[in-house]
Write a structure and sequence with these properties.
The chain has eleven helices and no strands. It is mostly helical.
């Protein structure tokens, strides 16, 4: 998957790459859902990373000239999704589908929009308007494009997340011992103390408030990448390096345990 991603990006950067991205992400998400459903982890699919990837596919395939969607997808991909590689310790572990697919969901959107911003858009600017697939780049700061529209989509997601995980499916998740992001962080000591600082009743609100704070910080931090090719390229390399480092830690732990068992 990694080799094909690099090959398609280098060989067909302005045409087939975006169709390839759609196909790969769709297959990954479907395969991951089947696996997660079997494991009882399918409520992780209510996480924001899946909503952000869905919006990117909508933009690429249905509204490629919509600047509002482009800005929202761009800031999501280079904000919370990219930073989540380090925050959630995504690992480039080639023999584990779950690890590799989770990394792809967070890093592929950034790679896709890096290519679109710095290669496809400048290339298409040299073509006649009728031959352009995507919009022309506009880096003018506008509150509506930089904040209001991305926040509107995020607000819809956060309401849906709350209704599904804390209202509609709350009993089902508890009785069947399904897992989701809230339950994952609830059993971590450091995050438990944060989430339950106001007690059990307010824990869901505190959890989503922490998520919103993380989202906003990452969202604002993504703005400079729209204006600097060097910074954007450096950050992609940095997040990929983080995933390689996390994988090296995984392999060290894995092989050390195998060695201990062989003694």
């Amino acid at each position: 998957m990694v080799i094909w991603q690099a090959f398609i990006l280098g060989r067909f950067p302005d045409k087939f790459y975006y169709d390839y991205h759609t196909i790969v992400l769709s297959v990954l998400v479907f395969s991951k859902f089947v696996y997660y459903k079997h494991m009882g982890w399918h409520y992780y699919f209510t996480d924001f990373c899946y909503a952000a990837n869905f919006l990117l596919l909508v933009f690429l395939n249905f509204f490629p000239k919509n600047d509002y969607l482009f800005k929202a997808c761009y800031f999501y991909a280079n904000g919370c999704l990219a930073i989540a590689v380090a925050a959630f310790r995504n690992q480039m572990v080639f023999h584990k589908f779950d690890n590799l697919s989770s990394l792809a969901l967070h890093i592929f959107p950034q790679t896709c929009l890096w290519n679109l911003r710095w290669h496809t858009m400048p290339y298409e600017a040299t073509l006649p308007p009728e031959k352009r697939r995507f919009l022309d780049i506009d880096t003018t700061f506008e509150w509506k494009k930089f904040f209001m529209v991305p926040m509107a989509y995020y607000s819809v997601w956060i309401v849906m997340y709350y209704l599904i995980n804390f209202k509609l499916a709350k009993k089902r998740i508890r009785e069947r011992n399904y897992d989701n992001m809230f339950r994952y962080y609830k059993v971590q000591k450091w995050s438990y103390n944060m989430i339950y600082v106001l007690g059990a009743y307010w824990a869901p609100a505190v959890f989503l408030g922490i998520h919103f704070t993380f989202f906003m910080g990452c969202h604002i931090a993504s703005f400079p990448t729209l204006y600097s090719f060097e910074l954007h390229t450096f950050l992609i390399c940095f997040w990929l390096t983080c995933s390689v480092w996390n994988a090296s830690c995984f392999y060290m732990d894995y092989f050390s345990k195998k060695y201990e068992l062989s003694l």
